[in-house]
């Protein structure tokens, strides 16, 4: 993968004077929930709305996502709010239905980045499109595997790329849900300074009271953006309830981070 300025042109197209902000629920649950959160995030610093439709759960038996019907809700939210829509894709079928429903941004989850076959299948299914694709770090602290995922997309002709740092699994109990290992992201940033780097404080911390602190650390390290799970009723969220914030809390985080949108 060349270290080309073209990697960040998509980000520059947002014409932001602050980091890119992606926000929305861990999972789309109902049409009303999606619409309510999207309406509250419209006219804020948020540029892209996220919602998981197919949820890769560590253990079976949990909520596994609403599936394709959720894509219709996202289309409706996009038509009403103008926010770009982002979903997680883990295989070719997901990519196909996301493309059919005009989803703007696809992200590859941490449990998928570890699997080169799955990433290659996604890359092949995206050939010829000009979607924005964001690659989360793999669950294990392996920079090559992370970069390898990005390269598979790049080699398939996808040039609107970025990476999401969501922390790494460890058997050890720490204050984080997934330890940041900042040095891995910093090495990636120094090797590919034009590859947009986005921090996911929600999955790093696993707790809403630490989102501000980790977001601030990321911005101090010159990250290009933040992806923050945001829910209208976080405590009753169907997945990742402990780490989601309300839209009002998210707006307060922006104030505290002194993120300001350019008004032109
Ligand atoms: C998510 O973004 O909701 C998610 C499942 O994240 P990760 O792949 O980082 O665990
Ligand atoms: Mn989540």
TrEMBL record:
GO terms for biological process: chorismate metabolic process. It comes from Flavobacterium humi. It comes from the Bacteria. The keyword Nucleotide-binding does not apply. Its EC number is 5.4.99.5. Keywords: Coiled coil, Transferase. One of its GO terms (molecular function) is chorismate mutase activity. The keyword Coiled coil applies. This is chorismate mutase.
């Amino acid at each position: 993968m060349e270290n080309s300025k073209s990697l960040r042109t998509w980000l520059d197209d947002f014409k932001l004077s602050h980091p890119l902000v992606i926000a929305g629920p861990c999972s789309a649950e109902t049409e009303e929930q999606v619409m309510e959160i999207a309406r509250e995030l419209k006219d804020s610093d948020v540029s892209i709305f996220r919602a998981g439709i197919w949820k890769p759960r560590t253990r079976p038996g949990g909520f596994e996502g609403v599936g394709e019907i959720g894509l219709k809700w996202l289309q409706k939210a996009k038509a009403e709010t103008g926010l770009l829509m982002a979903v997680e894709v883990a295989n070719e079928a997901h990519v196909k239905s996301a493309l059919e429903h005009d989803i703007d941004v696809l992200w590859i989850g941490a449990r998928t980045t570890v699997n080169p076959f799955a990433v290659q299948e996604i890359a092949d299914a995206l050939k010829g499109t000009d979607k924005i694709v964001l690659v989360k770090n793999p669950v294990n602290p392996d920079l090559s595997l992370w970069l390898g995922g990005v390269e598979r997309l790049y080699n398939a002709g996808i040039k609107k790329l970025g990476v999401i740092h969501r922390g790494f699994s460890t058997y050890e109990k720490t204050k984080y849900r997934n330890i940041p290992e900042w040095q891995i992201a910093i090495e990636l940033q120094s090797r590919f300074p034009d590859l947009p780097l986005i921090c996911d404080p929600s999955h790093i911390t696993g707790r809403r009271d630490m989102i501000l602190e980790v977001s601030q650390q990321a911005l101090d390290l010159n990250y290009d953006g933040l992806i923050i799970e945001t829910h209208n009723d976080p405590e009753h969220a169907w997945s990742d309830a402990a780490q989601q914030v309300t839209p009002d809390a998210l707006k307060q985080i922006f104030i505290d981070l002194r993120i300001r949108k350019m008004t032109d």
